[in-house]
C-alpha cells in the first residue's frame, strides 16, 4: 500500500515541476517580440508573445488618400503575419508540455 503512495508523491512532484517549467516558458514567450510584415515591408506590426500589439509602422510611400483600401489590406496582412508567427512559436514552445497528456 505504501508503495503506491510513494509513486503518487513522485508523480505529483513531477507535475509540479512541469507546471513551473510551463509557467516559465510562457513568461519568456510573452516577453518576446514578433514582427509581421506586409508586401515589401511597407507595413510592419510588432506583437508580444501574449498577442499584444506594441507597434505598427507604415512607410510613407504607401499612404495614398486615393487608395485607403490598399493600406488597410497591408495592415491586415502585417498583423496576421505577426500573429501567425506568435502562434507557431507558442505551439513549438508550449506544445511539448501537452504531448502525452490525456485530453490535449
The strand count comes to 3
| Tally of contiguous helical segments | 2
State the low-pLDDT regions, or none.
Answer: none
Regarding CATH, which class of the domain at 32-103?
Alpha Beta
Tell me, rounded to a whole number, the average pLDDT.
Answer: 90
- Rg, rounded, reads 21 Å
Estimated structural class: alpha+beta
Order of helices and strands: HEEEH
Give the CA-based shape: rod-shaped
How far is the first residue's CA from the last residue's CA?
A: 31 Å
- CATH homologous superfamily title of the domain at 32-103: Nucleoid-associated protein YbaB-like domain
Predict the CATH topology of the domain at 32-103. Answer: Ybab, Chain: A
Instruction: Please list the strands of the largest sheet in the order they lie side by side.
Output: 1-2-3
Shape-level CATH architecture of the domain at 32-103: 2-Layer Sandwich
User: What is the helix fraction of residues, given as a range?
Assistant: 55-70%
Largest sheet: 3 strands, antiparallel
Share of β-strand residues: 15-25%
Protein name: Nucleoid-associated protein ATZ33_09205
Pfam family, one: YbaB_DNA_bd
GO molecular function: DNA binding
Biased composition (Low complexity): 1-17
